[in-house]
Amino acid sequence: MKVKICGIMNVETGLYAVEKGADALGFVFAESKRKITPELAKEIINQLPEHVLKVGVFVNEKPEVIMEIVNQTGLTHVQLHGDESPKDCEAFSIPVIKALSIETIVDLGKIEQYNCDYILLDSPKGKYRGGNGVKFDWNLLAEFEETGKKIILAGGLSPENIEEAMNIANPYMVDVSSGVETEGKKDLAKIQNFLARAKRREEVR
């Protein structure tokens, strides 16, 4: 199972996550307790292996501002976590991950509206658009028909429930932030545990 660790804020955590098997790292440029500056993101990204996806997370930001940060930092993917329209998602020259808040089966119908390679399915928004540590009903995905898009599962994932989530939802990738934190800070032991459990699925297949 591919894994994205979101809300990276320092070099040590980023390199550790990659060493333990993370396929993607997320850098939050929207209002959040995990918000990072382009300067610091660039410093971290410059030290990451080429194969790791470097994802910038934005909420209702102007495309020109996003692309300026992309060019400044070396991001490889843009994650749009706000109210962006399908047309808004076509304004970029690098791959786009569109995040959708899921409450009912009706919300899954929005996936087809977006011409993106990746769709991230998250819990309903709380104080922030993501990273709130709340899960939605994964069973909604159990009978979900394949769309041809790469589905990223987010929202309330943790080392304790990641195996259940993968078994029910069977996503392309899982995305965790608060679930590998202690008192609001990334916890290296939790990152290692989460990655070990997620990657174990690859070994048994």
Structure description:
The chain has one domain: Aldolase class I (TIM Barrel). It has helices at residues 11-19, 38-45, 63-73, 105-108, 139-142, 162-169, 188-204, and strands at residues 2-6, 24-28, 53-58, 77-80, 96-101, 118-122, 150-153, 173-176, 181-182, 185-186. The mean pLDDT is 91. The termini are close together. It is built from seven helices and ten strands. Helices cover 30% and strands 21% of the residues. The radius of gyration is 16 Å and the shape is globular. With 205 residues, it is an alpha/beta fold. The strands form two sheets. Strands 1-2-3-4-5-6-7-8 form an eight-stranded parallel β-barrel. A two-stranded antiparallel sheet has the order 9-10. Belongs to the TrpF family. Its EC number is 5.3.1.24. One of its GO terms (biological process) is L-tryptophan biosynthetic process.
